[in-house]
Model the fold of this input.
Amino acid sequence: MMRKKTLRALIAVAFLIVALITGYGWKENTQPKQVSGTLTVHYLDVGQGDAALIQCDGKSMLIDAGDNSKGTEVRSYLMKQNVETLDLVIGTHGDADHIGGLDVILYNFDCKTVIMPDRKRDTKTYRDVIDTMEHKNYSLTSPKVGDTYSLGEATVEIVAPCGDDYGSNENDYSVGVMITYGESKFLFTGDAEENAEQDMLQTGIDLDCDVYKVSHHGSSNASTSDFLDAILPEYAVISCGEGNDYGHPHAEVLNELRSRGVKVFRTDEQGTVVAVSDGKNITFNMEPSTSWLSGR
Done:
């Protein structure tokens, strides 16, 4: 975290100098919220898909649940983490490798808030999720950029989708969130591709983060140079399946990350990746990958 902290310190000093020259003072909310516990982020190994469990102060949230064959596996993992209630569940978008296992989760856990994009899909996978929600009397919450949710002392902010005119590219409608815990920031963008990334940048939302869950499993259609320059991650986690048919992660994305000195973790090589933050420092359950091997 030293590089990030040094950069932030320099920015803070520059701001102070400008404030002294112009006569403007510090705003009260410029300092990160003080926290007293830990935030744990589990990037689950679900093969070619996405699933992440976030826990803080006895509260839990889930982002995606892998494909249709992974629901029971994700459920078992949550139970081993003593999860009984999910305060927030996010299905980033309707692709089967993201919401395929979500019906199992919705059925077996008490889910308080369920967020998915307002995009109906004519698939059995999507219908299974909606049918389960109706059976459990859950209401579906549409994502709205700028909305925030509390997860213990952590804050979850919706940062995408920023547009509703992406045509048939369902990836760009992905729900994106920034999870902030003290000074630590974790960014998730589902399968958002270049157009969605550009829209996020144009909103002026602060996307600077410490850990970036690489969009679209490391596809070259996402994680553009402009986007990576804006988010400035120190760490990145790629969720993809070993020997997958898509060649994920693509060499172009790996090269972009490597050129910026980003430390990369990969579920295809390393299994489930777990990050723990105390609000200042982030530690992982393993060392970063050193292979830099693309999936093709």
Residues 183 and 279 are 5 Å apart (CA to CA). The longest helix spans residues 2-22. The two ends are 31 Å apart (CA to CA). Confidence is low (pLDDT under 50) at residues 15-29.
